[in-house]
């Protein structure tokens, strides 16, 4: 990864990258980049980090505003033989400080605001070397002030040594720090994805658009794949405001789109515009969480291609993708589309095995029965930083506990019904949420929270924080008993860096207590 852009440039890659705003590490260099220019930026950034004192084997924490230069900074650290740890700036300050204490980085590359937050909470300085990317701060050196004129020879580490550290989403509490190696992330995950499969592989004439959380593990793997395959163009969205994204997407209409489920929700209004920017999309990709059928239909309908595809993946930071499912216009309109929305496809052939077990006895349950989902994959990460016992507790012999409750069907496909920490007796929170979102067109999102006493608490997210009572009554017909809904706007809901709802935090916000459930397998 340290020489990824150099090798692509040497191979003749003509990819042009278009940004919605300049990189934080190159704020005066515009929004259009070639691969050769990106290679130069990575080399210069590596030189600057070396000038700051970063050495081979050091851990380098990266915490900044969301943008693709998270991965450029990580590649620069890898070039020096250091181990980057990409942490979301959207983490609660207490959680961020906890992760930095577990990580014990030699260097922290961050913003002046994040540094101030950490200093207000932590007992001491978060790292020996402090580098800010936006402006100078007391006790820190500004990245732009460091010497970029002395390029460093790339340091290559063994394929089984730590390559990069990412954190999990943190929907159920403090995120875990996951360590991947070159073998697990590049050889097992990126290399598999870089094959030009018919219909879903990246083509030389593709224009890729990505609206992601660039501090999370998915985009580091994505970067390895797209740079090596050299499409004609890449469009990078650092945010999901429709009015900001629209002109950039229309100027460079994508043929392949990958986005967070939350970003698909926020950008959905663009699908109804006369000159919608998704008119030439042949492939949509979603990970992190299921996308609800109404959103699937909206985007598939927006494409003017004869047979656009939606590829939905299920996986985890620790494992990478585990299953895939494909949606078409026809399947998204099928009568059972709502009830099968949580069916996330089959395990990746030849790479992933899956089984469902009783969460108490760990004995396999018959196909079609609810159980705790275990997987086996050669891409399993090396471990958790500072939580080795927690890592060992999730190993079940040669199997890994996903912490998800689901059903392994007779045809080999899998349905995810709930996280074990969120599971409630007698109902699937996720399926109930799917039904409510289908029946409430005004709802941006629905969340079911377990309550310590009484019926589960539904949370309905709308644009204006209002919900018609008669519409709610009709939407809940035939569903399990639910408490009266809490109605919030999007920004009133605590979220992870990937846009997922932080359910425990939301429950405490609304009820003062953590949700019902068990955290044994989180």
UniProtKB/TrEMBL annotation:
Gene3D superfamilies: N-terminal domain of ligase-like. It comes from the Bacteria. Pfam families: AMP-binding. SUPFAM superfamilies: Acetyl-CoA synthetase-like (SSF56801). Residues 20-384 form the AMP-dependent synthetase/ligase domain. InterPro entries: AMP-binding_CS, AMP-dep_synth/lig_dom, ANL_N_sf, ATP-dep_AMP-bd_enzyme. This is Class I adenylate-forming enzyme family protein. It comes from Streptomyces cellulosae.
């Amino acid at each position: 990864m340290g020489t990824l852009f150099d090798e692509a440039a040497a191979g003749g890659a003509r990819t042009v990258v278009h940004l919605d705003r300049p990189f934080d590490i190159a704020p005066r260099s515009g929004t259009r980049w070639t691969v050769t220019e990106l290679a130069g930026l990575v080399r210069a950034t590596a030189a600057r980090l070396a000038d700051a004192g970063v050495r081979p084997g050091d851990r380098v924490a990266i915490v900044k505003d969301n943008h693709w230069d998270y991965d450029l900074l990580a590649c620069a650290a890898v070039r020096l033989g250091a181990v980057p740890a990409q942490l979301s700036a959207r983490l609660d300050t207490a959680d961020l400080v906890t992760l930095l204490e577990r990580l014990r980085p030699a260097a922290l590359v961050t913003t002046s605001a994040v540094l101030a937050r950490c200093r207000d909470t932590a007992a001491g300085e978060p790292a020996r070397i402090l580098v800010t990317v936006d402006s100078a701060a007391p006790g820190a050196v500004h990245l732009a002030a460091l010497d970029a004129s002395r390029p460093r020879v790339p340091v290559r580490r063994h394929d089984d040594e730590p390559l990069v550290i990412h954190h999990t989403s943190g929907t159920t509490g403090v995120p875990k720090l996951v360590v991947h190696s070159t073998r697990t992330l590049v050889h097992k995950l990126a290399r598999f994805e870089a094959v030009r499969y018919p219909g879903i592989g990246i083509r030389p004439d593709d224009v890729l658009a990505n609206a992601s959380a660039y501090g999370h593990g998915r985009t580091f793997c994505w970067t390895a794949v797209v740079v090596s395959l050299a499409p004609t163009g890449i469009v990078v969205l650092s945010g999901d405001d429709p009015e900001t994204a629209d002109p950039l997407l229309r100027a460079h209409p994508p043929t392949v789109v990958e986005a967070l489920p939350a970003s698909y929700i926020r950008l959905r209004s663009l699908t109804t515009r006369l000159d919608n920017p998704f008119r030439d999309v042949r492939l949509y990709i979603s990970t992190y969480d299921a996308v609800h059928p109404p959103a699937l239909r909206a985007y598939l309908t927006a494409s003017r291609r004869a047979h656009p595809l939606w590829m939905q993946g299920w996986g985890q930071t620790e494992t990478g993708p585990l299953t895939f499912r494909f949606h078409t216009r026809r399947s998204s309109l099928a009568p059972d589309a709502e009830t099968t929305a949580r069916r996330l496809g089959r395990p990746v052939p030849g790479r992933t095995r899956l089984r469902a077990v009783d969460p108490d006895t760990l004995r396999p349950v018959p196909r079609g029965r609810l159980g705790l989902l275990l997987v086996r994959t050669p891409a399993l990460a090396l471990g958790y930083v500072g939580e080795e016992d927690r890592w060992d507790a999730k190993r079940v012999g040669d199997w890994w506990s996903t912490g998800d409750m689901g059903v392994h069907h007779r045809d080999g496909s899998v349905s995810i019904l709930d996280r074990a920490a969120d599971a409630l007796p007698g109902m699937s929170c996720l399926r109930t949420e799917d039904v409510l979102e289908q029946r409430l067109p005004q709802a941006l999102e629905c969340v079911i929270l377990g309550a310590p006493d009484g019926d589960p608490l539904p949370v309905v997210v709308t644009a204006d924080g209002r919900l018609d009572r008669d519409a709610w009554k009709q939407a809940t017909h035939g569903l399990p008993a639910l408490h009266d809904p809490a109605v919030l706007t999007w920004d009133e809901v605590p979220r992870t860096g990937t846009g997922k709802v932080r359910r425990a935090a939301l429950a405490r916000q609304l009820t003062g207590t953590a949700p019902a459930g068990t955290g044994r397998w989180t």
